[in-house]
Design brief:
Blueprint: E1 13-16, E2 19-25, E3 30-36, E4 41-45, E5 50-64, E6 67-71, E7 76-79, E8 85-101
Antiparallel strand pairs: 1-2, 2-3, 3-8, 4-8, 5-6, 5-7, 5-8
């Protein structure tokens, strides 16, 4: 991968039904660009990575441990390592950008 990228031209992977992910990374930092179809579900899970999720467009119902919120564009949630979380795209498609530390090797697509 070069230092410049066009998000729509990056390799993609469906990580859950209706959830398409693309990624860029350096040695210690990663960003994933996620498109969710209306009604797409990211099932509850946890991982050792720290994650920051930023909603770019759409409406996302997000659950972090026992707290649930409906997120609007421009809102973010910080997800500590090992914390259970899940999401559902509501009322239409969503675009989400996620930042990771450390890099998720399973999300490296280049």
């Amino acid at each position: 991968m070069t230092n410049f990228a066009v998000i729509s031209k990056l390799p993609s992977r469906e990580i859950a039904p209706g959830v398409i992910m693309r990624s860029v990374h350096l040695e210690k930092a990663m960003v994933t660009f996620v498109d969710l179809e209306e009604g797409a579900v990211v099932p509850e899970h946890a991982h050792p990575h720290e994650q920051i999720t930023v909603l770019i467009s759409g409406t996302l119902r997000f659950r972090l441990d026992d707290e649930e919120r409906v997120m609007a564009p421009g809102e973010a949630v910080t997800i500590p390592s090992g914390t259970k979380h899940a999401a559902v795209a509501e009322g239409g498609p969503c675009v989400v950008y996620d930042c990771w530390s450390p890099v998720r090797d399973d999300y490296v697509l280049d």
